[in-house]
From TrEMBL:
Any one Gene Ontology cellular component term annotated for this protein: plasma membrane
MF terms in GO: ATP binding; ATP hydrolysis activity
Membrane topology, record value: Peripheral membrane protein
Full protein name: Peptide/nickel transport system ATP-binding protein/oligopeptide transport system ATP-binding protein
Domain of life: Bacteria
Compartments, record wording: Cell inner membrane
Family label: Belongs to the ABC transporter superfamily.
CDD domains tied to this protein: ABC_NikE_OppD_transporters
GO BP annotations listed: peptide transport; transmembrane transport
């Protein structure tokens, strides 16, 4: 049985003066019905660009996009903009990073919710408003009927993000892409938002792609994880396997830099040395090697492919077995 979403060799390049920025480089993965898949990595690794590209939200030109993105059997890369609009909303919902810049400050929350449903579902004004009240209640906003007539600035950051989730759910999509949905929120609200999204996707059978750098939330809510570095997936597998036994040095570095409650309070965090690479100056070797403590001559000669590193687990590293076992 085919997956709901299948991404195959997705690439995104941007001309920049006399150079080309390879923002996404050969990304491939799948998402099944009702599954939660996380895409993690440092800022600038291509997480957000790949999500925008697969939904047709990266302008072409200037971007040069290749590969296939199949949603429910249809290749989105071959569709016209008018066809993509009919898929966004009823098929794929999107929760963007910063709700204050995604919500229109001049329109009431109710209008932004109902307009979405009237356009895609053909609901009457009254039916759309009733559904909007239901959705705001579903995402945990009190007195939803009264809040419909308020503007985004009347809501806190956490409440605005809940409104974004309600908009994403409004047309009963089969897939939601959440791009850093908790970046601007404090830790307590972050946990609430991710718990809410996980519960809603479980109840409604919606698949979820979470794009984030917060590994603590990923460990709790994701079924599978894709680790991105320099535009490529360098490790993927079940969340439990990756956290218990990371096989790529970059993944180990990310995990080592996260505070843990089961460690002594005096223990120092271990940062990853160096800086992410310039995506316009990548060579033919492993892009992580300037920061890697396990580098060999082979790492400079060619780029490692994503190879099996266990059951349903793969890593793009020439020597994953040389790394010590995870603590």
């Amino acid at each position: 049985m085919a997956s709901l979403l299948e991404i195959e060799n997705l690439s995104v390049r941007f001309p920049a003066g006399g150079a080309v920025v390879q923002a996404v480089d050969g990304v491939s993965y799948s998402v099944d019905e009702g599954e939660t898949v996380a895409v993690v990595g440092e800022s600038g690794c291509g997480k957000s660009v790949h999500a925008l590209a697969m939904t047709g939200l990266v302008p072409r030109p200037p971007a040069i996009i290749g590969g296939a993105v199949r949603f429910a059997g249809r290749d989105l890369a071959t569709l016209e903009e008018s066809e993509l609009r009919r898929i966004r909303g009823p098929g794929i919902g999107m929760v963007f990073q910063e709700p204050m810049t995604s919500l229109n400050p001049l329109m009431t929350v109710g209008r932004q919710l109902t307009e979405h449903m009237r356009t895609h579902l053909g609901l009457s004004r009254r039916a759309a408003r009733d559904r909007a009240v239901e959705l705001l209640g579903l995402v945990g906003i009190g007195e939803p009927a009264a809040r419909l007539d308020q503007y985004p600035h009347h809501f806190s950051g956490g409440m605005r993000q809940r409104v974004m989730i309600a908009i994403a759910l409004a047309c009963r999509p089969r897939l939601i892409i959440a791009d850093e949905p908790t970046t601007a929120l404090d830790v307590t609200i972050q946990a609430q938002i991710l718990k809410l999204m996980k519960e809603l996707t479980r109840e409604m059978g919606v698949a979820l792609v979470i794009i984030t750098h917060n590994l603590g939330l990923v460990a709790r809510y994701a079924d599978r994880v894709n680790v991105m570095y320099a535009g490529r997936i360098v490790e993927h597998g079940r969340a439990a396997d990756i956290f218990a036994d990371p096989r790529h040095p970059y993944t180990r570095g990310l995990l080592a830099s996260v505070p843990r409650l089961d460690r002594p309070r005096t223990e120092r965090l271990v940062p990853i040395d160096g800086q992410p690479p310039d995506l316009s100056r990548l060579d033919g070797g492993c892009s992580y090697r300037p920061r890697c403590g396990f580098v060999t001559e082979a790492c400079a000669r060619s780029r490692p492919a994503l190879e099996p590193a266990g059951a349903a687990h793969a890593a793009a590293c020439f020597h994953p077995g040389k790394m010590p076992a995870a603590a």
